[in-house]
């Protein structure tokens, strides 16, 4: 077994690595589910309630309810991405560095 293969096996067997994989997967799936629910809910609103989305926000404006809802969905995608990046740069990277330092 080569040195690289031994190192990879040690990393894989480390319980903190398993914790890292589990935590990262939980965050990825949770944030993905949130954005998918938001997107599909908006599409379902477009399909089944177009009249409601087309209503003006106020009587004397041309902006409809659908415009700010669409903007909220787009902004939420950026916010959720930012949350993941923050988690990756703090918790996940710290755990990765701790694993590598202990095994090297």
From TrEMBL:
Keywords: Membrane, Transmembrane, Transmembrane helix. GO terms for cellular component: plasma membrane. The chain crosses the membrane at residues 27-53, 65-85. InterPro entries: DUF485, Inner_membrane_assoc. The keyword Transmembrane helix applies. Pfam families: DUF485 (PF04341). This is Putative membrane protein, clustering with ActP. The lineage of its organism: Bacteria, Pseudomonadati, Pseudomonadota, Gammaproteobacteria, Thiotrichales.
């Amino acid at each position: 077994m080569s040195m690289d293969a031994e190192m990879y096996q040690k990393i894989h067997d480390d319980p903190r690595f398993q914790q890292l994989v589990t935590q990262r997967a939980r965050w990825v799936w949770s944030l993905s589910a949130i954005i998918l629910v938001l997107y599909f809910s908006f599409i379902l609103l477009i399909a089944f309630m177009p009249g409601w989305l087309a209503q003006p926000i106020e009587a004397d404006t041309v902006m409809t309810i659908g415009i700010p809802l669409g903007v909220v969905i787009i902004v939420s995608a950026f916010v959720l991405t930012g949350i993941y990046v923050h988690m990756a740069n703090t918790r996940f990277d710290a755990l990765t560095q701790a694993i590598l330092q202990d095994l090297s």
